[in-house]
Amino acid sequence: MTVTATPRPTGHPGYSQTLPREPESAATARRLVRTAMAAWGLEQDMIEPGTLIISELVSNAVVHSRLASIRVMVSQPTPSLVRLGVVDRSKVLPMLRTDSDGDQIHGRGLVLVDGFSHRWGTDLYRWGKQVWAELEVTS
Description:
Elements: E1 4-6, E2 14-20, H1 25-39, H2 47-64, E3 69-78, E4 81-88, H3 109-116, E5 119-124, E6 129-136
Antiparallel strand pairs: 1-2, 2-3, 3-4, 4-6, 5-6
Helix pairs in contact: 1-2, 2-3
């Protein structure tokens, strides 16, 4: 698998990788997040929430996407933010579930994303979407 880096206005590269739409891709996505954050010299305490967030975003894409692959993206759009995103070919919007059905084992990942990120959202495209979350850079 190939990791690509693109220049960003902050001087930091962005990292992205196309992965198979399967649960095992979450491990590769976590490694990509760790690699990017280490390359940017970010604090160790950002890695755990970043890897948790990307795992949840990948899991959602695995369940809800239509095609055989997804794209994971990690960038630092400003010196104070890291953006983690997963692009898929589904136009179904993610929903933050706040119900407390104790028997429900799926559907609470976005609650974790919401709790650990500075903010999160969805960018819609003609052919699909990107679900992203941002972490504030700690000094």
